[in-house]
Amino acid sequence: MEGFERLRTEGGAVYVPSEGPADRFLPPPGGLHRLHLVEYQGGLRLCEDETGLLVGPTDRRLQRAGLYVTNVRGVNYYPEAARRADLSPGRPLRLVPEPDNLHDPFAVAVHPNYGKEPIGYVNRQKARHWSKVIAGGSSLTAVSLRGTGPGVACEAVAVLAAAPEVVAHLMSPRPSGLPQPVFLQ
After folding, report:
1. How is the chain split into domains, by residue range?
2. Chain centroid to CA 39: how far?
């Protein structure tokens, strides 16, 4: 844990280093991910169970573990839909592939769980992969990691998507006995 102490004491870093084993976030065989979502700076972030370190949303190892995170693009084009929606952290969202989209056949719209109108789109680079995962028969459940409640203008939304059972696990409380998230120490 020497490296863990150094991370915590030098500059207050609270994130898992982005370099390291490619399989760091893979769940053990037959098990669940060793991550949970925790409240951090008004939103939700993934927290590694063993270390209490946060996982950066751009960490490339997440996708390998079946965890997809992105900022929603184009929210400014749907301001009324975003204002009406409850995009608070932890709220469910729907991902809707749009293979007939004239601008991008891999487009994936992000909708509030109950709404017909999108509030934005998965960014183009990630949408290609996400749409292939969905078209391949995988069920993805999505939740807001950052956003606002209904009736409040929303300029930024972040979303996490994964298999339904994985999202349920990530949203469950962290088990007792784990190290406290580093930013709380």
Report:
1. 1-65+169-185, 67-162
2. 13
SS3 category, 97: strand
Q: How far apart are CA 146 and CA 38, in angstroms?
A: 12
SS3 of residue 61 by DSSP = helix
CA atoms within 13 A on the CB side of 10: 6
Among residues 51, 45, 44, the alpha carbon closest in space to that of 17 is found at 51
Q: Supply the pLDDT for residue 183.
A: 87
CATH code for residues 67-162: 3.30.70.2330
Size of the chain in residues: 185
pTM equals: 0.89
Name, in order, each residue with C-beta under 8 angstroms of 99's C-beta and a sequence gap of 6 or more. Answer: 105, 106, 131
Question: What residues pair up with 111 in beta bridges, in sequence order?
Answer: 94
User: Residues 11-45: pLDDT tens digits?
Assistant: 456 899 988 899 999 999 999 999 999 999 999 99
- AA identity, residue 9: T
- Letter for the amino acid at 30? G
Contact between 87 and 154 (Cβ < 8 Å): yes
Ranges assigned E (strand) in the chain: 35-40, 43-48, 54-55, 68-73, 92-97, 108-112, 120-122, 141-146, 158-162
Q: Are the C-beta atoms of residues 93 and 159 closer than 8 Å to each other?
A: yes
